[in-house]
Amino acid sequence: MIKKSITAEAIRQYAVASQDLAPIHLDADAAAKAGLERPIAHGMYLMGLAQSLYIAEHPTQWITQYDMKFHKPIEADSIVIFDFTDDDCAVNVTLTTEAGDVIASGAFSVKEVQS
């Protein structure tokens, strides 16, 4: 289990890098119009972050395929808990809030890197 702060600055940096500048990710007024307290993180940012966190802890693994379902948005300046469980050649991942709400869930297919 890994806790990670999802900051407004990290969301902004991802928006610039991905060129996904949708206002709901960057603008508090746009987020409020959508019924949110703050801008939200990009789903692809969360999925990429999950993969990066896993690989950092398992450097001999290579992710060959992934599948992620997004259940609810996560607002900027929130903590996300990344929980990884190994299952043969797959890694199940669940992203939750500190309150236990599931944000996203999915799996990575992994294989051992040949040296």
Search tags:
Thiol Ester Dehydrase, Chain A, 115 residues, single chain, alpha+beta, 4 helices, 31% helix, five-stranded antiparallel beta sheet
How do the helices and strands line up, and which of them pair or pack?
Elements: E1 2-6, H1 8-18, H2 23-26, H3 28-33, H4 43-57, E2 61-70, E3 78-87, E4 90-97, E5 102-112
Antiparallel strand pairs: 1-3, 2-5, 3-4, 4-5
What is the oligomer described by this structure? single chain
Largest sheet: 5 strands, antiparallel
End-to-end span in angstroms?
Answer: 28 Å
Number of domains: 1
Order of helices and strands: EHHHHEEEE
State the CATH class.
Answer: Alpha Beta
Which residues form runs of ≥5 with pLDDT under 50?
none
**Strand-residue fraction?**
35-45%
Assigned CATH superfamily: Hotdog Thioesterase
Q: Over the alpha carbons, how many angstroms does the gyration radius reach?
A: 15 Å
Number of strands: 5
| Alpha-beta content class | alpha+beta
Quick check: average pLDDT? 93
Q: How many helices in DSSP terms?
A: 4
CATH fold-level assignment: Thiol Ester Dehydrase, Chain A
Helix content: 25-40%
Large-scale geometry: elongated
Q: Could you explain how this protein is built, in words?
A:
- By secondary structure, the chain is α+β, with helices and mostly antiparallel strands.
- The chain has a single domain (2-112), classed as Hotdog Thioesterase (Thiol Ester Dehydrase, Chain A, Roll), CATH 3.10.129.10.
- Helix content is 31%, strand content 38%.
- It is built from four helices and five strands, in the order E-H-H-H-H-E-E-E-E.
- Strands 1-3-4-5-2 form a five-stranded antiparallel sheet.
- A hairpin with a 4-residue loop joins strand 4 (90-97) and strand 5.
- The protein is elongated.
- The two termini are 28 Å apart.
- The model has no long low-confidence stretch (mean pLDDT 93).
- This is MaoC-like domain-containing protein.
- InterPro entries: Fatty_acid_synthase (IPR003965), HotDog_dom_sf (IPR029069), MaoC-like_dom (IPR002539).
- GO terms for molecular function: fatty acid synthase activity.
- It comes from Paenibacillus etheri.
- Residues 4-78 form the MaoC-like domain.
